[in-house]
């Protein structure tokens, strides 16, 4: 079992998959909802708890593929909500809403994170079918690091919390 322990490495972020960065879950039980493309707001009924997720709405969680480069190789890892929030600086719902207003924001977020150095803890997927290592935790190494949403707000001139 030693081999399956999470391990930590220094890496640079090479690229982020901005096309598919989140998924919808039932806001009551957090089970994944059938993904009628992450773009619409059609009410879905959670078939686990039968909670009608249209009210209160379902929520989104991050699930992002990122390419990282260690000192020896480049590989793709998957970042779930907790780790991705460090990179994005907001919830997946907030980011999704931002992208709705600024269609290129997801691409830009990838660009602003490119080249940043992180200390990441990775683990082997528990599900044998999952193909990517998952990111357990991520710590930015650059002292001036700011999460993508902060940079995006500056770029797009969005003030936080009004005038
Ligand atoms: Zn549910």
From TrEMBL:
InterPro entries: NA-bd_OB-fold, Rep_factor-A_C. Residues 9-100 form the Replication factor A C-terminal domain. It comes from the Eukaryota. Transmembrane segments: none annotated. Pfam families: Rep_fac-A_C. This is Replication factor A C-terminal domain-containing protein. It comes from Vitis vinifera.
